[in-house]
Amino acid sequence: SPPQVIFSGIQPTGIPHLGNYLGALQNWVKLQNSSPPGTKLLYSIVDLHAITVPQNPEQLRRWKRESLATLLAVGLDERKAVLFFQSDVQAHSELMWILSCTASMGYLSRMTQWKSKLALEEGASPLDESSKAKLKLGLFSYPVLQAADILVHRATHVPVGEDQSQHLEFARECVTNFNHTYGGEHLVAPQTLLSPAKRIMSLTDPSSKMSKSATNPSSRILITDSPSTIKRKLASALTDSSNSVSYSPSSRPGVTNLLHLLSAFDSTGKSAEELGMELERSGMGLGAFKSLVAEAVSEGLKGVRERFERVMGDEGYLEGVAERGAVRARESAGETMKIVRKAVGL
Ligand code: ADP
Ligand code: NA
After folding, report:
1. Does the keyword Iron apply (predicted)?
2. Catalytic residue at 270?
3. Whose C-alpha in 2, 123, 307, 342 is 20 to 30 A from the C-alpha of 29?
């Protein structure tokens, strides 16, 4: 079978939290270190996606630099994977336009994220006309850019979280529409590689996922947080009134979420359920349990934090990584654009 091409992207919208790390970045590293020789890996910092909502230019520049440092800090290696900024490779935007001309408006308007912006889901009160008129075109059409990101590199496999599978479906729809319109197997339909990781929940509200958009900064742990910050955030994590440890996703979501974190960083490879039983038997209270989780997380992130500080302090190195990545990503995208332009008659 032909070699795999793996593509994934992350938005430069702040330092990743534990959900991003355990749900996405760790899997990227695993794929990098376990893929058979010949596999092409591309990991992009998708800055063009970040501007679908207003950004402060200074802050965006800083976030871009931090994001690249983050990719290196978690263990991605430019010798094994192409690490690049999306906006350095103009073919992403060019293919987006070309795909827009065969993509279906109906399909896009049925997508969950758009419907949630319009508050069209069941139970929500719909937006009024003036709020609707202010919605931006980019927010509607960004799935086409996402499709272009993937298709321009002829990706065969795309690692994503559950929340993104609908977008992969749309990318395949773009392939079908394009190939049908221009009669040929010009673009390659990608497969979804669902992340094996558990969803990490908010520390302050275990019924919602850990997210960078939650207003309370104590609800998430960033992968560069210091041990004392990690300790403080875990100490204030919402659990329940029973002063003991046990695993129960339905009746003890807070404690169970912390057990998932402990298991993710526990070097013995024990599951959250096993750890829960062990700690229940030992009679550990919640205070000691939170300290234990804090130590495991701090220890597990130590290398990440140190590498992050080191590369952030070396501006020239970061620029070099970005430049080398851009050259290789342009080359990869250029091959597809030749095929696409020829098929379309451009
Ligand atoms: P956020 O919700 O913080 O805005 P994104 O939507 O940008 O995060 O997600 C980036 C990646 O991280 C996606 O692959 C997503 O599936 C994963 N991810 C985000 N939050 C979590 C979480 N709480 N648990 C597991 N994975 C997550
Ligand atoms: Na999100």
Report:
1. no
2. no
3. 2
The model's pLDDT over 271-302, given as tens digits with 9 standing for 90+, comes to: 999 999 999 999 999 999 999 999 999 999 99
* Ligand 2 centroid from CA 211, angstroms: 7
Nearest-angstrom CA–CA distance, 278 and 84: 44
The SS3 call for residue 43 is strand
Q: How far is the CA of 163 from the centre of ligand 2 (A)?
A: 9
Mean pLDDT of the region 263-269? 92
Best CA proximity match to 82, nearest among 345, 339, 335, 322: 322
Please compute the mean of the pLDDT values over residues 248-255 and round it to a whole number.
97
State both tokens at 225.
């947080």
Ligand 2 mean position, distance from CA 285 (Å): 34
* C-beta separation of 55 from 16 below 8 A: no
Lowest mean pLDDT among 13-17, 58-62, 120-124, 282-286: 120-124
Domain locations along the chain = 5-199+315-344, 217-309
State which CATH number among 3.30.70.360, 1.10.240.10, 3.40.190.10, 2.30.30.40 fits the domain covering 217-309: 1.10.240.10
Q: How many CB atoms lie within 10 A of CB 166?
A: 14
What is the pLDDT at residue 39? 97
Query: Ligand 1 — pocket residues by CB below 6 A?
Result: 10-11, 19-20, 23-24, 160-161, 163, 197, 199-200, 209-213
Q: Would the pLDDT of 126 be above 80? A: no
Active site residue 209: yes
Q: Identify which ligand lies nearest to the alpha carbon of 206.
A: 1
The best mutation among 6, 20, 44, 167 to test binding of ligand 1, ranked by most ligand atoms within 8 Å of the C-beta, falls on: 20
In which residue are the tokens 């996402």 written?
A: 146
Segment 131-190, tens digit of pLDDT: 888 888 999 999 999 999 999 999 999 998 777 888 899 999 999 999 999 999 999 999
